[in-house]
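User: quick one, fold this
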Amino acid sequence: MLGVTKSFNLPDGREVTIETGKLAKQADGSVVVKMGDTMLLATICTKKEAGENVDFLPLSVDYQEKYAALGRFPGGFFKREARLSEYEILISRLVDRALRPLFPDNYHAETQVLITLLSGDKNQYPDALAGLAASSAIMVSDIPFNGPVSEVRVARIDGKFVINPAVSELEKADIELMVAASMENIMMVEGEMKEVQEADMLEAIRVAHDAIKVQCQAQIELAAMVPASSPKREYCHEKNDEELRQRMHTELTDAVYEVSKSCSQKHVRSEAWDKILSDFIETIPEDVRSEKTPIVKRYFDDLLYEVVRKMILTDKVRLDGRKTNQIRPIWCETNYLPAAHGSAIFTRGETQSLTTCTLGSKLDEQTIDGVVIEGSNNFILHYNFPPFSTGEVKQMRGTGRREIGHGNLALRALKPVLPGPDVNPYTIRLVSDIMESNGSSSMATVCAGTLALMDAGVKITKPVSGIAMGLITDSKTGNYAVLSDILGDEDHLGDMDFKVTGTRDGITACQMDIKVDGLSYEILTEALAQAREGRLHILGEITKTIAQSREDYKPFVPRIIKTRIPREFIGAMIGPGGKHIQELQRETGTTIVIEEVGDYGMIDIVANNKEAVDIVMRRIKAISASVEEGEVYDGKVKSIMPYGAFVEILPGKEGLLHVSELAWERVEKVEDKLKVGDIIQVKLLEIDKKTGKYKLSHKALIPRPAKSEQESGK
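Assistant:
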């Protein structure tokens, strides 16, 4: 079958088309999604069988943008697409988080989803179509999948919600969310907001879900047109032993429960659980022990899942003994690193972030050279998760996708409270190094980032805090428990990981992953209300340490002075080949950055002392000053020619002092009177109306000598 298509319209009337059967027909499933000039190819391939003793889904999702999609060349020596950029990784994560929960729990075959931007539109973000493309590829395949699912971007612009808005429109948005959902349930939410209220965020999610239902229906109808999509393939990836399962349930439940309710620390609790498991494995006959061990480990995880959830729901006891809405103990410290521009420690329970703030110039901005997104970024946040933070030994293999995702969430949380360029002249880099972790290290990064910014003297508008919320539900009874400030184990064993950040006045960012079907808006409303309480409590603890940004930057922080000159003077400031500006930087020890913005040249002067700044400012004033005929200048001799000398009367403004204008008497050689670097007073006699060249004179400033008798007699 060639080119089977299904189309639908977005709420504003724009048409989206899903096509299958034309490209990549050897993949298990492939589609091309098109909206306007934007085209995405999505493919899925899986192995028929799972690997030996694999008890999870080895799913990889990669999103990549081809530079040819927008008629561009990749940068670098090789001029080809290289490893995924951070932007592409973030999109890959969004799609992964939407798809992964919808594969059957017992499906463990290695699976790869590839999404490629084939054609693009500068005014349309393609990431809003990536989830739709990936899900559609799975739906037209024979791979078992409890979908469909889709993703949209929803933004509130001028008070109205827009689905998949244009890039140019997003600048005016106060809510921007990526939402993934099936026909029935919200699966994933991530985005940033400008201090909005919880009800506004929920309304945005509802609007997004309505649009997603249309997209899911289109996928169902497309799959029905593709014979290969049904029936789904049969698989058997798990070995089971029901007798063994029942024995473990009988013998181990009480022991697991006692450890779980002991309120011990993370490592103590984990070691106790591990001992229960290892002791049980020892009871299995040696001849079948190696065969049964993987099954035992899987059943033990299931038992742990059951026991902990029941303990929280029935006994109202959390793993560390807290109430459902209780926050772990918090302590903070600023200025911990004396040589850093700003630093802070934020500790909540067994989770700790050491964050530094570094202030730099415009030259330190991050260059963004993506296919769709180009430009620069003056706020950078990096999140590091070293293995010692969880007491583990692991190879350090560079920044992982999780670290990139957590760093991006923290960046989005803090970005709305940063001062504008009129107040903040710096490029800001925050680095969060997680010292220890037991749940919600990304939210610790937000809190430590707030403290470090204030410690550095960055005039943020308001402090920001963050909290991770969890959820335990029982579909049979309808009971549920919303958990504030979740532990790592509560995240692993729970049904929701909902991270919310904000100020006292509203939400700035969120990230939500839901692992259970049928999560109601009522539960989400309760979770958001409880999150607000926790968020405000944490803010109170932060402001006890430092309530507002320091009045001034630390003495060793470089000072940046901003000024501007009319655009026509930029060339004179820079000089030929950068000669003038390089010379000025060398003389003053400053860094000078000039950027043309509209009718002006915007200048940043980076210096460590006021004297250097003053010198640069005087030079800038002189450059932008206009020259006038008849004015007298203290000029500097720049070069000497047989016919005269070129003299700089103002920075970037040189004129010819002809040999005949050096003195009243005849001068045979210019070198007899001047050398390069001399300062000489000159008068501007004339500005040539055609060439703009300056005619200078020194003798005009010297009284004309009386003629000698000998000269008189001639």
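User: anything notable?
Assistant: The longest strand covers residues 38-50.
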